[in-house]
Amino acid sequence: MGNSRRNGPHKRGGWLLIIGLWLGFAALSQAQGQGQEQEQELLWVLYDTLLQTYVSRHRSEGVELAWVDYSGLRQDPRFQQLLAGLAAYPDAALRAREARLAFYINAYNILAIKVVLDHWPLASIKDAGPWYRSVWDLEAGEAAGELLSLDQIEHERLRVLGEPRIHFAIVCASLSCPDLHTEAYRPQHLDRQLDDQARRFLNNPTKGVREDADGFWASKIFDWFADDFQPQGTLNYIVRYRPKLTPVLKGYLDYDWSLNGE
Q1: Whether the Cβ atoms of residue 185 and residue 102 lie closer than 8 Å to each other
Q2: Which residues contact 225 (CB under 8 A, 6 or more apart)?
Q3: What is the mean pLDDT of the chain?
Q4: Could you report the per-residue pLDDT of 29-53, keeping only the tens digit for each?
Q5: Quick one: CA torsion of 41, 138, 119, 117, rounded to 10 degrees?
Q6: Tens digit of pLDDT for each residue in 87-110?
Q7: If pLDDT is split at 50, 70 and 90, which confidence band does 64 have?
Q8: Taking a C-beta distance cutoff of 8 angstroms, is the pair 209, 242 a contact?
């Protein structure tokens, strides 16, 4: 009894110290997590700013097209800051599917721009690769601590996640590609953003779907990546966004690899 009375306060004090330390560490971890989230958001705010500064809308054949000012962007030191932030992005923040999708769509588009700027001036991104190797297989840059090619991002990071709308969001710096979205993709807005991109692309007769009285021609994207639009199939997938379209697929549009800017 005497020992219990003598040791009791010390034991309680020890437990209080442990609980206090645990709460302190938990608060610190939470603060660090919030700090990392703020850093990540600042990266996308920077990307938003660059997109809104150097991507403009041009009209072609009665349709609005996104046009990239590569010459101006090449001289802006903030693009190097964006690349540094992309490279340092923590892989631990990419565990959720939406987070991975948003990040690697952004990464693809940023690094495609980087490839163009690294080989400036050029008439097509395909000119950035040597004659014996495709530009898509070349190391484009670093994302979340990995040195990746554009093909690795598209096929090994994005397509494996089973979201066909990525094909309306990733932009290989060419006229027949989807337009660059003028804000970064973010997990919390991703579904809306991808739907917006799909609708814009499929209503663009120079890129996505061109129709006449008895059918339509679709982007070559639907030919190259037909498996990604299963089980619905290409026709049903397009009609989902173009319900008044005559449901007869007549063929595929020629793909224009000319640079989507100057």
Answers
A1: yes
A2: 159, 164, 167
A3: 90
A4: 454 445 568 888 999 999 999 999 9
A5: -10
A6: 999 999 999 999 999 999 999 999
A7: confident
A8: yes
| The one-letter amino acid at 198 | A
> Of the candidates 219, 225, 103, which has an alpha carbon nearest to the alpha carbon of residue 153?
103
Residues 215, 209: contact at Cβ < 8 Å?
no
Measured between alpha carbons, how far is 197 from 178 in angstroms, rounded to an integer? 8
Instruction: Extract the tokens encoding 137.
Output: 């297989």
Side-chain-side CA neighbours of residue 192 (13 Å):
6
Q: And the tokens for 239?
A: 């009609």
Pairing of strands 55-60, 63-68: antiparallel
**% of the chain residues with pLDDT over 90:** 79
What single string gives the DSSP state of each residue in 118-153?
HT-S-S-GGGGS-TTS-GGGSEEEEETTEEEEHHII
Which phi and psi angles does 200 have, rounded to 5°?
-65, -45
For residue range 125-172, what is the model confidence (pLDDT) as tens digits?
A: 999 988 889 999 999 999 999 999 999 999 999 999 999 999 999 999
User: Nearest to residue 150, comparing CAs of 111, 117, 101, 179?
Assistant: 111
Contact 220, 186 (CB under 8 A): no
